Please model this.
Amino acid sequence: MLEIGSVIDGKYRILSEIGRGGMSVVYMAINEKANKTWAIKEVRRDGVVNYDEVKQGLLVETEMLKKLKHDHLPSIVDVIDQEDTFLIVMDYIEGNHLGKSLEECDAQPQELVIEWAKQLCDVLGYLHSRKPPIIYRDMKPSNVMLKPDGNLMLIDFGTAREFKEKNLADTTCLGTVGYAAPEQFGGRGQTDIRTDIYCLGATLYHLVTGKNPSEPPYEILPIREVNASLSDGLQRIIQKCTQKNPEDRYQSCAELMYDLEHYEIMDERYRKRQKRKLFAFTASTVLTIALAGTSFWGYLSAEQKKSENYQVILTRASDASITAEERISYYLSAIATKPTNTRAYLELIEMLLSKDGLTKGEAAVFTQLQAGLDQTNAAGFSSTLYPLEQLKAADPQGYAQVCYEIGSAYWYDYEVEADRSIAAADWFESSAEYYQTAAIYCEIGACQQQIKKYAGQERTEKMYQAYGQLWEKLSQLAEAAEKEEDETKLLVWPEVVAAISDKAQYFLKNTSRDDLNQLLNRIEKQSGQLGSQTSFEEIRQSIHRLSDQIEDARARIESGEGQEAKS
Model:
């Protein structure tokens, strides 16, 4: 064991022992020259039976962690390999692991668990996005540190592995019983990203119920059977995470993150309220169409009958004299009637954007399309229709168009400024195969999220690197827009110019004034050509406003300031 007060490698003074496991001891140490506190994990030859094998595993772990940079992962700063001792110097994480929180307070508050789930889902998504993907394989409360600021850190990568596509099965069975997925034991194939999703679901179950799945009876019950006040939406999420068959789980952390961010909408109570609204509309529509000699919600077996109903509903939906809520109901009914036709989707989007801004309530319609539409057939049986899935299967390009338009609605019109790029990202990602600009929007959103990490902090080299990446994506977006329709150009150009104007001070750390001005000149030239060719006054006014923006951006470049810096 290391002696308290001793100095390791000439720079790390041991302050105290802070943890002890089956094969290692963890100490708090300080680098006195840098006045920085670190944690040092010690593994001794006389403390484990198969020391050389354990050391090799630790070397793999540390090499893996050295390549990773994420807010919820500790950094490895040094490895000290002595004759009979192996030492790992890493970030000292103040706080306690979540297992301690469970010991002290049993079940944790639901809202807190959901926020933790988002952080853990984010870091797992980061690991899975590495090339090759990194599978963590041992998510459990004792491997998650809760810091005083409420943020989490994922620790102990001893069981993590890089995913090897050609492997038929893992070579060893690793993980913690109760939290581990079935495929981690018994030769049922190799672990993959869905394994981590199972482990996360089991961890959330323990946190929100206080029931330890690694103790008898070793089961994960529906959480509302343990506590009826818990959310039905969260129960659905945990149950989907912990399905025995990997194919029945979430297939990615992005899918899981979406549901975590919208768990209230998945709640059965919410769905019942929406169902009542839809049923109320359905009843009146059935009566109206029945009087006309047609059947709306009956078995729509004939394509001609479908088309007749579709046209009737769309005609009603386009009536501006009825309320917005009624129009939305008609459009959703049209989509349910003919989910593989893009017209109702696109008219619905246009209707929601017909006034200034896209509100949270209006945006919930898009979420409803993803969550599914409840409907009743002529025999009185209810079911859930997933129209977007049907559209994607029947018309991939039409599906991409709908997703692109919804992504654009979020990007340019969503009332929650801070959430625009996040909300748009999933939709743009679904349309990237057919829309080059969609892929660039996703990358711009990722850059903006990276920059947000440094809000309120001193400007760092990493922050300026993120701005450099953002500049590259803006340039690519402007170039891609040149091949798009005029309507798209008039959306993209102001976005690019506004970003240059707002962030000129930060772009200039890595980009020359000439490069910034060259892009503005190119946009000015192209927009001028468009203005001279059009007879539409609205387009001319848009180009005139763009010209004013360009002049303002040039002034900010010249002064080396941006709007963000001034504010």
Notes: Residues 268-397 form one domain.
